[in-house]
Amino acid sequence: MKVAILGFGTVGSGAYEIIRDGKCGLTVKRVLDVRVPAGYEELVTTDYQVILSDPEIEIVAEAIGGLHPAYEFVTAALRAGKHVVSANKHLICHYYKELHELAAEHGCEIRFTPSAGGGIPWLYNLRRAARCDKIESLRGIMNGTTNYILDAMQHLGSDFAEVLATAQALGYAEADPSADIDGWDVRRKCAISASLAFHTVLGEEDVPTFGIRYITKEDIAYFESLDLSCKLLACAREENGRVTAYVEPTLLPSGAIESAIGSNFNCISLWGKYVGCLSFVGQGAGKYPTGNALVQDMLDIMEHSGKTPISLTAPVMDQTIYPHRYYIRTNAPVPCDVIERRDGNKYITRPLTRTEIHTLASAAANIDPQAFFAGLEDSIV
Fold it and tell me: Which domain holds residue 23?
């Protein structure tokens, strides 16, 4: 089967090398990029119409990133009857319903395993589990950059700014790390995962989010005094037809599986009614892990292992279900009726809903912009 790759950057070139060096039955006929590297003149084109008009190209792999022109390229490919695989979490999250319906309308498949979990076959196995099981909940570490930062702060005793600088030097964090440290990257991955798990369509706006920008080494030391570790987790749950999904730093006991996940690794779990708990651990990003996931999606299409769903229902969102306690560190006043424990400017609250904690956080941030919040839970089941 012949394919085209859109974008010859880190992920696109990784997928190309895997196909070129392997014996998987795929051939890269064309690559689209704004530049044509020396030695690739016969392969790389700057004209997308060359790919669209080529009947031999059956799969288009999108590795450009961002919303535009990725959206225009992907929708044009689907309308031309070409299957699409994508590593673009922003695109998939923003246009989830439209892309699925367009693929079904034109008899194509759209696959996006690398968009959440990178090299981990998370979405692939979530899709398989959801075919015949009821997925009750999911949670996990979905961002290697933030996990590296939190792990290093815990084990080295370093402050946030120092570890972030190291992560940037190692290439784990971008020059502008906002998408990672403010939780936006995980929010998109959470929305995609919950949409697939619960056969629905969640947008970013459906996932209330706290990041780790304002965590301090004093926070980490306090957590350790309670025998807890902090991880940035995506969580989603369906209960009696209602869905809750959120992203927040979460304090976990040492026995929790996520507590043992170090460096820039990811760990994501699902709970099914019949299958129980399944967990997936591995590299969440990188040239070859993500490129490999992109190629695996191509192979699934080639082997016709699954079809694009043609009907997706709107979710009934309810951020009041599954309340839990929170850690708050702030110099702003905290209402007495929510406090379960206080140590100076550090608080443990009674169980609060996401609606309650985000209202409290918004009020606190007006007085103390450096305030930090983290969920406190042993398990999502």
Answer: 2-115
